[in-house]
Write a sequence for this structure.
């Protein structure tokens, strides 16, 4: 298994191109199942999760092609994928496949909406909290799907098609909103989604669905209204920039010091996180195509943070921010309200010398003057990148094991950081 080795102490200077968002690309790819025409997606990141989802959907009979690299394009340039779900031969997603990635459960929505039948295994994915799918199932039931749960599978049927309905989510769920949105596009009549997730990825999906002929208003607000149509057509759409990758590199430079331009991204996708970083001592300014983040000389101040659904501070940046706070002057309180158990990075950060105390859904991080390199273990996607951030300033060598988690969600991480001066390399093993 590959490892990543970092020698701490080098500042980060230069330019990092931000990739397309994994969390937008996955639902967009799944949306291709709603039409027999071709959906062309540009700016798709080269990540293990993208390949896994392609494998799962190919099993249904989906055809796909990946456009070759053009001259001048590097291995970090997003790829263009064409997806055609014309001859779907199977509407069952087995455990062996779904268990590798939780988001693949979402295929249940387009399958039942278009074919009237779907059998999808309960998901696996990152081991953060219990992460149930009850609200996703509730949404489909509100649209008239009959639901059975049998042997670890959810079977959704609607032989006469779905019909519009009112879906009130008791809690904000990104996946639930994606599922409700996709299913409602082909349901007969009007659907209203209340307490919808307002994440930019939901807006990206809605914009693509509209290009495909769906009738949707209100995406990006907490009430989305969908008028069902009888069929959707093909379209061409570029995946939005990855706001979590953007925030991760912003935190990396706040930690290591230096001056980074993050290109092809948008500050409004992560304003809450940038505000917190500015309070912590980073200088942040917009550029014509992204964000410039600097920290020169000044120390890092402790800031308290609570994770929240968008537009709040994202749970997917919590681990990275905690890494930053290990070096702050003062004690920071970090409260995780989205996922229980999303503190698995705490023990590993402690191996590098961090002082962190856990109390229920709060972590109290007491800044220390220095971290010391050590071998550490990546436990999930965001946790593993928090160890990279800590390693950037830890004295000596930090080796991060099990980097397959990183490969699921960060495109060309070590190449991007190394080009900006970090001493980081992948050890193939
Ligand atoms: C998505 C993101 C993930 C991010 C999360 C929150 C993708 C591929 N993943 O995950 O990176 O951390 O949003 O921003 O986009 N819940 C239920 N019942 C359900 C569904 C969810 O109780 O049926 C709960 C979850 O346990 C969690 C909360 O709702 O406590 C939010 O989860 P949700 O927004 O659904 O996360 P995902 O869509 O799985």
């Amino acid at each position: 298994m590959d490892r990543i080795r970092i020698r701490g102490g080098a500042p980060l200077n230069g330019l990092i191109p931000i990739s397309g968002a994994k969390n937008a690309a996955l639902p967009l790819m799944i949306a291709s199942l709603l039409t027999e025409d071709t959906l062309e997606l540009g700016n798709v990141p080269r990540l293990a999760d993208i390949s896994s989802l392609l494998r799962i959907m190919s099993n249904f009979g989906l055809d796909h092609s990946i456009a070759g690299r053009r001259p001048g394009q590097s291995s970090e340039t997003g790829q263009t994928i064409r997806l055609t779900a014309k001859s779907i031969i199977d509407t069952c997603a087995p455990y062996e496949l779904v268990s590798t990635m939780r988001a693949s459960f979402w295929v249940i929505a387009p399958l039942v909406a278009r074919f009237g039948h779907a059998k999808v295994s309960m998901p696996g994915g990152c081991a953060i909290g219990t992460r149930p799918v009850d609200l996703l199932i509730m949404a489909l039931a509100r649209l008239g799907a009959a639901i059975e749960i049998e042997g670890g599978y959810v079977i959704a049927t609607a032989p006469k098609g779905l019909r519009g309905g009112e879906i009130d989510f008791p809690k904000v769920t990104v996946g639930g909103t994606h599922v409700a949105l996709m299913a409602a596009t082909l349901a007969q009549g009007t659907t209203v989604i209340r307490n919808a997730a307002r994440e930019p990825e939901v807006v990206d999906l809605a914009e693509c669905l509209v290009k495909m002929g769906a009738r949707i208003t209100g995406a990006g607000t907490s009430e989305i209204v969908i008028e069902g149509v009888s069929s959707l057509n093909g379209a061409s759409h570029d995946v939005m920039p990855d706001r979590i990758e953007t925030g991760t590199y912003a935190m990396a430079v706040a930690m290591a010091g230096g001056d980074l331009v993050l290109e092809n991204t948008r500050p409004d996708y992560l304003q809450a996180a940038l505000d917190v970083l500015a309070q912590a001592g980073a200088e942040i300014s917009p550029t014509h195509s992204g964000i410039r983040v600097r920290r020169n000389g000044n120390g890092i101040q402790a800031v308290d943070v609570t994770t929240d659904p968008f537009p709040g501070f994202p749970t997917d940046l919590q681990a990275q921010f905690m890494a930053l706070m290990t070096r702050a002057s003062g004690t920071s309180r970090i409260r995780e309200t989205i996922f229980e158990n999303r503190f698995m990075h705490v023990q590993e950060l402690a191996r590098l010398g961090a002082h962190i105390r856990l109390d229920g859904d709060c972590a109290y991080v007491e800044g220390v003057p220095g971290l010391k390199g050590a071998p550490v273990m990546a436990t999930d996607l965001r946790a593993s990148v928090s160890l990279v951030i800590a390693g950037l300033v830890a004295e000596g060598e930090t080796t991060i094991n099990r980097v397959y988690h990183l490969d699921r969600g960060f495109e060309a991480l070590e190449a991007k950081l190394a080009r900006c001066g970090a001493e980081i390399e992948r050890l193939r093993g």
Q: What stands out?
A: The pocket of uridine-diphosphate-N-acetylglucosamine is lined by residues 23, 26, 102-103, 129, 131-136, 171, 173-176, 201, 315-316, 338-339 (CB under 6 Å). The chain has a mean pLDDT of 94. The chain has 14 helices and 24 strands.
